[in-house]
Amino acid sequence: MAASSITEKALANSLKKLMHHYPINKIRVKMITDDCSVTRHTFYNHFKDVYDLLGWIYENEIIDNLDIYCNVAHWKEGILAVLQYTLDNKVLCLNTFRSLGREHLEGFLYKVFYHVLSGVIDNITRNMWVDSELKTEAADFYTNALMGIFIGWLKKGLKEDPNIVANRIEKMIKGNIISLMERYNKA
What we know:
With 187 residues, this protein is an all-alpha fold. The protein has helices spanning 3-18, 29-36, 40-46, 50-61, 75-88, 90-97, 102-124, 132-155, 162-173, 176-183. The model has no long low-confidence stretch (mean pLDDT 91).
């Protein structure tokens, strides 16, 4: 593992540990560097601020592993993986959601859900001719729908089982994307 990656992971672990005790907006770079015994200069070689580090955590802990779920057969498993990650990192996610860092969490979630749904739409339309603008609009629409459900789950403190949330999402969108793409297939 590269030294850069080791340092980034150490900084990320320190931030996650601190978030168990402090809201994200109260955590300072010095607290993170003191916790993992690196200099402020080292921190700034990797991240511009605490929120940049927070974004790195979200980006690197789940999004890299989602490509296997970007198809019709496995999209629900991808959504469930995001829900489970959130539950497994409840303190981190709720702390972020309830703070000024909320935009980082929402941006991360949008990117993840959009990535999965775009892959699903590409998978559905691989033998169709559907306008790329419609595919983009559909991915955006369904991403925002998933975001609404997800944010509602966060607001309720992640108390509901992730499988129940994933089943609700499946019930609402199953077949709808396929139907939409078939309706506008120009083949």
